[in-house]
Amino acid sequence: MEAAAYKRLYPHEYYRKFLAEETRPDGRPLARARDVSVANGVVTSADGSALVKIGRTTALAAAKLEPAPPEPTAPDVGVVEVTVELPPMCAASARPGRPTEESQRCARRIEDVLRDANVVDLRKLCIKRGVYAWRVCVDVYVLDHDGGILDAALCAVVGALKDAKVPRVDVDDRGKLVWGGGERERRPGDADADADANGDGDASTSAAACVVDVASHPLSLTIGQYDGKLVVDPNFEEEALMESVVSVVMREDGDLVCVSKPGGTREASESTLIKCIAAARLRYPGCKKAFDDAFDAVEVS
C-alpha cells in the first residue's frame, strides 16, 4: 500500500511509526517548533498591519482606528476589538458563511490576552474625556491554516498594534473633531507633548500624531500530547490527531499570561502543563527575535 493511502486510511498507525523514532512526518523532532517570520506595514490602507508566518500557517492582521464616544461607565478609556476570519482559501475544511467556532474562540482569546497582559494602556487611547476615544479594530485573516492559528494570529495582532499610527485629531469647543491638530508628534504618555497640544497640560483632551504604545509582547505556543509524548507546535494534520492540545501565552519577562486548552479529548495533567510552560519559555526568545528584527529593519531603513 502506498504511503499516502496508508496515511489516509490509518492516520494514527502512520503517525505512531514516526513517534517511535522521536520524529514527525515533516522531519522535525518532537520538541522543535516551526520557523517564524514577521513583516510589518504590509497593508498600506490600514493604520497598522503585520504578516506572520509560522511554518505554512500565515496570518495577516490589519488595524484601523476610528474615534467613537466612550462607554458612559469608562469615559476616558478606548477600546481594542479583534476579529478573526478563516476564509475558504485557508484550508480544505474551511467553508464560506458565518464565522466558525474556532475563529470566534481565537478572537476572544486574543482579546483576553491583550487585556490580561496590559499590551495597550486603554486610557492612552482617550481623545477627550467623555466625548471621544479611539476604537481600534484589528481584523485578522488566516491566509493558510496549517495549525497553531492562535500563535500566528496573536503575534500578528501585537505586530499590527505596534505598527499602528494614531492620526492627529483634536476636539473643538463645539465637540467636533478637528483632524490634523497638534504641531508635534508624540508617543502616548508623553506629558510634555500633551501639554503643548492642549495648552493646559490636560493629557485627556487631545491626541496628536503618535504611535500606539505597546507595553508588552505576549506570544503563544501550541503544544499537543499524543501517546504520552509532547509534540511542540503541531501542524494542522497533527492537531487533528492529538489527544490534548494546550496553548501557552508568555510575556517577555517570563511571566505566564494564560494557558488554554483549545482541543483534544483528554485533560492535560499538571505535570504536562508544567512541561508545556517550560517549552513556551524556551520558544519565546526565538519568536521575539523574529518580531524585533521586522521592526528594527523598518527603523534602520
Secondary-structure blueprint of this entry?
Layout: H1 3-9, H2 11-19, E1 36-40, E2 48-54, E3 57-68, E4 79-85, H3 101-116, E5 126-128, E6 132-144, H4 149-163, E7 165-166, E8 169-171, E9 177-179, H5 191-198, E10 206-207, E11 210-211, E12 219-226, E13 229-232, H6 236-241, E14 244-250, E15 256-264, H7 270-300
Parallel strand pairs: 4-6
Antiparallel strand pairs: 1-2, 2-3, 3-6, 5-6, 7-11, 8-9, 8-10, 12-13, 12-14, 14-15
What does this molecule look like?
The chain has 301 residues and is α+β, with helices and mostly antiparallel strands. It has one domain: GHMP Kinase, N-terminal domain (Ribosomal Protein S5, domain 2, 2-Layer Sandwich), CATH 3.30.230. The longest helix is centred in the last third of the chain and has 31 residues, at 270-300. Helix content is 31%, strand content 29%. Strand 2 (48-54) and strand 3 form a beta hairpin. One of its GO terms (biological process) is U1 snRNA 3'-end processing.
